[in-house]
Amino acid sequence: MQSDATTTESFVGRPKTLAELRAAIASGQTKSADLAAEYYQRIEQKNPRLNVYLSLTKERALEQAARVDAAAAKGDPLGPLAGIPVGIKDVLVMKGAPATAGSKILKGYQPPYDATAVSRLEAAGAVLLGKLNCDEFAMGSSNENSAYGPVRNPVAPDRVPGGSSGGSAAAVAANMAVATLGTDTGGSIRQPASFCGVVGVLPTYGRVSRYGLIAFASSLDRIGPFAANVRDAATLLGAIAGHDPSDATSSPAPVPDYAAESDKPAEGLRIGVPAEYFGEGLDPEVRAAIESGIDSLRAAGCTIQPISLPTTKYAIPTYYLVATAEASANLARFDGVRYGYRSPSSATLSDMYRHSRDEGFGAEVKRRILLGTYALSAGYYDAYYLKAQQVRRLLAEEFLRAFAQVDAIVTPTSPIPPFKLGEKTGDPLAMYLADIYTVTASLAGISGVSVPCGATKAGLPVGMQVLASHLQEGTAFRVARAVEAAQGRG
Ligand code: GLN
Q: Which is more confident, 14 or 265?
């Protein structure tokens, strides 16, 4: 298999961890500016084939690197991400850099401010390399809905990297960034992490401010990190988490030292294995990899308990009602007047709205706006949207009952390994159904991690999803670290 994975090039053995890179920068042994240049070189070399970055923010990155190097030379205190090259999913805004959200309708839009997660990364010392490809408005599971072309999976370039944060996952897998930010509304961090063999974190809803995130479905949208290992991802989460007066839904709960939390052994933790996540439709090779991951947790001293989450069977229709309804409202603002693309060929104002939206949005986005508008329309609201909200509540309560008995729940992240480019584009329903294991935690608001857990015989990555209750990310990290350790990673 042709491969772009980090282990095959430019590094002997595994790439350096974030902590090792930071230490080298702090001691002056590595210059942040040189590290950034090395990453830009690798991006230049790999991007034409993988299509991971949509735009680069070189000037800002090099200014920040110079600031970090100057601080290191003076012996000034350095942030936890000092000098670390990081990439940002293109649904998060950065002042003065293009923000397309993977859509033609936002072509040319340059936001005037930074998302909170972005400014917090920079305040922690990170060097922001550029903006990463994704499905249009984060709608998709394969990155094939980007108006700027698909991303290729660095591990298997004829396959998709997953989505919608395909660029964020692929950038880490191909070592085109040490870590990245993505967003997850129904699985868009966890599933691409699983497909590309990297770690992805779904923080609790409200843990990370959404200020400056181009909204898809506001009650579900979350921002979270990708990294090559659990500890690095935990370090990133620590830098971006916490209350923000600009996001009324952000949690005031104090932010733990997530990296230190992840260092605690998993021994003694009670792990639930829900039968509903191991049924029909689960690829046998994925099942085998996850079962052996569960064995390694048992060996690490965890108690494994079978549990049941019967509402899981309603999760897909519930998610696709709530998400599309909110999307239809959020995307009303793209009208050709205020942002990005405006159709040149309109005689009247309403024609201009219509043509701009018709020409600016891709097929999947239009499908969702139609579905969501329908679900919210008079006469259907009670039957669809209201019902979906009620099922959502049942699902959340079911998880809370489970977390009274277990500390974490483990499942496959995706029922299938990464598929071939083009394989599912003609069948949106099949694409939706494959989100079955990730949309549940999205609806319930709980936290989770996808951690690499073996591979198929053909060498395709498999990810294990580790779910934890609200604000219990530290527990998910501990379990994920144990899985990682059993694979000789991390
Ligand atoms: N694949 C899901 C969807 O298409 C999830 C997307 C996401 O999490 N942003 O809606």
A: 265
